[in-house]
């Protein structure tokens, strides 16, 4: 591996690391030699994920239970990670949910729930870790937004609004922290096969219809985010901040 891409002696926190894209990104960081803590709300599933990752690539993965919508829990898990690692160099701000319902049918509670986790939660984590990194005078924050933070998608009003907001939060934080050595970028995945997309993947008709809309004609495999996440986390992207890196099989080029 080129030394610019190495994450040796780098310490990372991945929210939503118990499954899906977060799990795959945690694995990628570990493979690039980072020490990684993974965060989610359900301890048993999280412990199992940490154990599985540790066995798979023969590194320690630290499980930290927290709900990103709770400022006190976000503070506590950040402190715990720093206590364990001594520092924090990389934040993958990835925890998120999706609720599908057209705008005129979506309940206020559904809309608020999505915004609360995907946007307020991401803000709380980025703020808490950002404060620490600003003091440390180094760090890379990667906010996991989405292709639908850039383009609209019918039936996902809360989700698209939350991800568009996260891209703007990324740009503003990037400007605020550029002078203190902290880079803030957004990763915008397109359609990947994870639990979040099971309702589409498992329904043959919906799946066929959706795949027809993907220019590359297939879903992405979470492992296909490895290169992008290592790039954004490492010195290989040292002059990059406030950017959105899109990995979407061509979707947003339509
Ligand atoms: N899959 C895609 O195609 C796709 C495309 C674009 C963007 N994304 C984004 O990528 C991220 C990961 O998606 P995914 O597909 O991997 O979803 P997923 O398989 O459903 O995983 C979501 C992860 O987030 C955690 N999480 C949810 N709410 C949380 C909370 N309040 N506090 C802490 N952790 C929480 C979940 O664990 P617990 O439920 O146990 O807490 C789980 O670890 C999301 O932000 C999503 O919007 C996904």
Structural class: alpha/beta
Major sheet characteristics: 7 strands, parallel
Q: Look at the structure and give the CATH class.
A: Alpha Beta
How helical, in percent, are the residues? 40-55%
- In CATH, the topology is named Rossmann fold
Number of domains: 1
Shape: globular
Number of strands: 7
* Small molecules bound in the structure, each named once: NADP nicotinamide-adenine-dinucleotide phosphate
Rg of Cα set = 17 Å
Biggest sheet: strands side by side, in what order?
3-2-1-4-5-6-7
Order of secondary-structure elements? EHEHEHEHEHEHHHE
Helix segment tally: 8
Q: Write the CATH architecture name.
A: 3-Layer(aba) Sandwich
Structural description of this entry:
The protein has 254 residues and is an alpha/beta fold. The chain has a single domain (3-194, 224-242), classed as 3-Layer(aba) Sandwich (Rossmann fold). Helix content is 44%, strand content 15%. It contains 8 helices and 7 strands; from the N terminus they run βαβαβαβαβαβαααβ. It has helices at residues 20-31, 43-57, 71-85, 108-136, 157-177, 198-201, 204-212, 226-233; strands at 11-15, 35-40, 61-65, 90-93, 139-144, 182-189, 244-247. It has a 7-stranded parallel sheet with strand order 3-2-1-4-5-6-7, with helices on both faces. Strand 5 (139-144), helix 5 (157-177) and strand 6 (182-189) form a beta-alpha-beta unit. The chain is globular and about 50 Å long. The model has no long low-confidence stretch (mean pLDDT 98). NADP nicotinamide-adenine-dinucleotide phosphate binds at residues 15-16, 18-22, 39-42, 45, 67-69, 94-97, 117, 121, 144, 146, 189, 191-192, 194-197.
């Amino acid at each position: 591996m080129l030394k610019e891409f190495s994450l040796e002696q780098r310490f990372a926190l991945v929210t939503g690391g118990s499954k899906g894209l977060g799990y795959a990104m945690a694995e990628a960081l570990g493979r690039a030699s980072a020490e990684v803590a993974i965060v989610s709300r359900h301890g048993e599933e999280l412990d199992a994920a940490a154990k599985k990752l540790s066995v798979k690539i023969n590194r320690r993965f630290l499980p930290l239970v927290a709900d990103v919508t709770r400022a006190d829990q976000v503070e506590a898990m950040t402190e715990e990670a720093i206590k364990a690692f001594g520092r924090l160099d990389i934040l993958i701000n990835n925890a998120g949910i999706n609720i599908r319902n057209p705008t005129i049918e979506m309940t206020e509670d559904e809309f608020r729930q999505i915004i609360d986790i995907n946007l307020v939660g991401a803000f709380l984590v980025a703020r808490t870790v950002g404060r620490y990194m600003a003091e440390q005078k180094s760090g890379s924050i990667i906010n996991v937004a989405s292709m639908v933070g850039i383009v609209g998608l019918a039936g996902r009003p809360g989700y698209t609004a939350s991800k568009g907001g996260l891209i703007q939060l990324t740009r503003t934080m990037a400007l605020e922290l550029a002078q203190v050595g902290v880079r803030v970028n957004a990763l915008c995945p397109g359609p990947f096969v994870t639990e979040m997309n099971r309702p589409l993947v498992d329904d043959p008709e919906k799946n066929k219809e959706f795949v027809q809309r993907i220019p590359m004609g297939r879903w992405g495999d979470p492992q296909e985010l490895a290169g992008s996440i290592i790039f954004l986390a490492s010195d290989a992207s040292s002059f990059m901040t406030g950017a959105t890196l899109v990995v979407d099989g061509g979707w947003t080029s339509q």
